[in-house]
Amino acid sequence: MPHPYSHASTAQEQNNTPAGVRLQKVLAAAGYGSRRKCEILISQGRVEIDGEIVTELGTRVIPREQEIRVDGARIHLDDCHVTLALNKPRKVLSAMDDKKGRWTLRDIIGDKYERIFHMGRLDYDSEGLILMTNDGELAEHVMHPRYEIQKTYVATIKGAITQATLHRMVTRGVCLEDGWQKFDKAVLLSGNREHAVVKVQLHSGKNRVVRRMFAALGCRVTRLVRTSIGPVSLGDMRPGSYRVLTVEEVRKLEKEVGL
Q: N or C: where does the chain have the smaller number of CB atoms within 10 Å of the terminal CB?
């Protein structure tokens, strides 16, 4: 007769059965370095399986059924998951299809990736960074209001604006129809009587928020480019191009949204 408490074994004991794959092999395949380096991570107590720290090097896991984390960040076990950074040009719709026949994100990435969709939007006349993924959990966290990621924009404004005005936009903000809104940071990059170029950062994901904030000051934005979303930057990507995020970029993005 089995012991009445035999079912209460720890996760580490359960994972030491012959079934599954050695943990260090899984970590190495996920991009955490050589198996030797992964063994060091395990020995240092930096790896969790289903919420429990594991330090035994012989530990085996079933990758598709168990959650594995390193330093609190989940590891990627699904080779089908991909996350893209795309530089959206003006006059491209932040959608995969359009009944009116306008250019969309699908016209840029094609049909190479299955079930991929955009995380957030840029309005039709704005440019810059859009993130796309087929990882549903990542997308849910990136777009959830609880995890509003800091975004950086470069705005070209018609007419002049002073650094003092931008300072008030950071310290006080402006009242929009859907509430008060402030910039986290606002820097005047260049300007004259005809136009000004301003770099701003904010966490809000509200629709057309940067344009509306400047409009509240009587300023018209003639060009708006989003240059970064959290740890992911546009860099020197050409308009209409895209790239696959590195493993390190995805890890940083996940960490920022609590994954």
A: N
